[in-house]
Design brief:
42% helix; 3-stranded antiparallel beta sheet
Length: 167
């Protein structure tokens, strides 16, 4: 069985930080050891979050761009992860993804779940087809609208994020 993977950073000076991502690329366990103070409340917010929400964590880690998770999760982009309404936003996005484009059609979320149930290793051409379908879907615009609304409403708490009208 596929139990996912572990991502580890640290040394004796910085501390030890381990994330276990399950087969769905979601944080399943977190282990931190440090001589310095740890932002425990923030780190706990990472549990259950998909790696894509963490600024493409796996891609950055595999590319050698992350050498210290303690510092990585203190960067300005990460503020949204610790916001008290972020879990609610993720649930709203999940709900939007589960709505079909047309009545009687499978939603994009249902299609992805079916593919994952069949085989966790989705072929590249299937990924491209899903991405193209998402780009043409009503869900994409709804998600973007919801995200920009969220950022606008929370702009004083999340000043590092650009809104729709900023360029």
């Amino acid at each position: 069985p596929n139990y996912g993977r572990e991502l580890v950073t640290g040394d004796k000076d910085v501390g030890y930080f381990r994330l276990h991502l399950n087969q769905y690329h979601t944080v399943e366990t977190i282990t931190c050891l440090s001589k310095k103070e740890i932002e425990l409340g923030n780190i706990c917010q990472l549990y259950g979050v998909h790696q894509q929400y963490m600024n493409s964590l796996e891609e950055r880690f595999d590319g050698g761009l992350i050498s210290n998770f303690f510092e990585y999760f203190r960067e300005p982009w990460s503020l949204i992860l610790y916001h008290d309404r972020f879990a609610e936003l993720r649930e709203e996005i999940k709900e939007l993804m589960s709505q079909p484009n047309q009545p009687g059609e499978e939603s994009l979320s249902e299609k992805v779940c079916q593919l994952v149930d069949e085989d966790l290793a989705i072929e590249e051409k299937t990924k491209i087809a899903l991405f193209e379908e998402y780009n043409a879907s009503l869900a994409k615009q709804s998600i973007e609208n919801r995200l920009f609304s969220y950022l606008s409403y929370n702009k004083y708490h999340l000043p590092h994020y650009a809104g729709r009208n900023m360029a």
